[in-house]
Amino acid sequence: MNFLEEKICKEGVVRAGNVLKVDAFLNHRLDMELLDQMGEEFFRRFQGKGINKILTIEASGIAIACATARFFRVPVVFAKKSKSINLDADLLVAEVESFTHKTKNQVVVSKKFLSADDKVLIIDDFLANGCALQGLISIVKASGGSVAGIGIAIEKGFQVGGKTIRNLGYPLESLAIVDGMDAETGEIVFRTQEDEKNEVVG
Ligand code: 5GP
Questions:
Q1: Ligand 1 contact, 129 CB (< 6 A)
Q2: Which CATH number belongs to the domain containing residue 125 in this structure?
Q3: Which of 104, 125, 152 lies closest to 25, judged by CA?
Q4: Which residue among 100, 104, 172 is best mutated to probe the pocket of ligand 1, counting the most ligand atoms within 8 A of its Cβ?
Q5: For the segment 134-192, what is each residue's pLDDT rounded down to a tens digit?
Q6: Burial track 179-200 (b if 16+ CB lie within 10 A, e otherwise)
Q7: C-alpha of residue 153 to centroid of ligand 1, in Å
Q8: Which domain holds residue 122?
């Protein structure tokens, strides 16, 4: 088990409806040492790709993106959730359905903070059905920039997002992939490296 999987086992809580609560270290209280380790690991996996900007979505992606940016020494831009219908022409916009709240939000990034020469690393806390990621990818595309990588803390491998994004050809790296979880027993099953190889082949 890697450092994040261990932490999830120790402090994560499985809730009904396929929700994993990680409030104790990622979504409410922040474990800064763990965040540092995550940032360093994303740096190890994506360095050398010319990344000059990190993009995430408020709120829970911000801390991970900042921890990662300290290793890359690049700025972080976070997409803001906006209810407003009167959107400015100087905004890049995508529609994102929230997995946890089941609501639709427009997420926006100012055009002045993303541009055609940007090589972007997208970071987020969870990957479930891939809606948040698809929104961020479309914002990068609209800016004319390119997606150099996608780093996710926790992927729920039993939901479709990971497969969809990988099939689209994006370099997606998740630090922990949960292949199954049981709200009654609290059991969490992680994908091993061996499973990952089989997943690529299969
Ligand atoms: P997706 O758009 O991939 O369906 O869902 C990703 C977003 O939903 C993430 O940004 C995260 O905030 C939230 N999310 C999805 N699944 C979970 C979960 O099991 N636990 C928590 N805490 N957030 C989740």
A1: yes
A2: 3.40.50.2020
A3: 125
A4: 100
A5: 999 999 999 999 999 999 999 999 999 999 999 999 999 999 999 999 999 999 999 98
A6: eebeeeeeebebbeeeeeeeee
A7: 11
A8: 3-198
Q: In the 8-state DSSP scheme, what is residue 144?
A: T
Long-range contacts for 93-102 (Cβ within 8 Å, ≥24 apart)?
93/139, 94/134, 94/135, 94/136, 94/138, 94/139, 94/142, 95/135, 96/57, 96/131, 96/132, 96/134, 96/135, 97/131, 98/131, 98/132, 99/126, 99/128, 99/129, 99/131, 99/132, 100/19
Please tell me the total count of domains within the chain: 1
Q: Whose CA is nearest to atom 10 of ligand 1?
A: 126
pTM for this prediction: 0.96
User: Could you tell me if the CB of 164 is within 6 A of ligand 1?
Assistant: no
What does the angle CA 32 – CA 37 – CA 42 come to, to the nearest 5 degrees?
A: 125
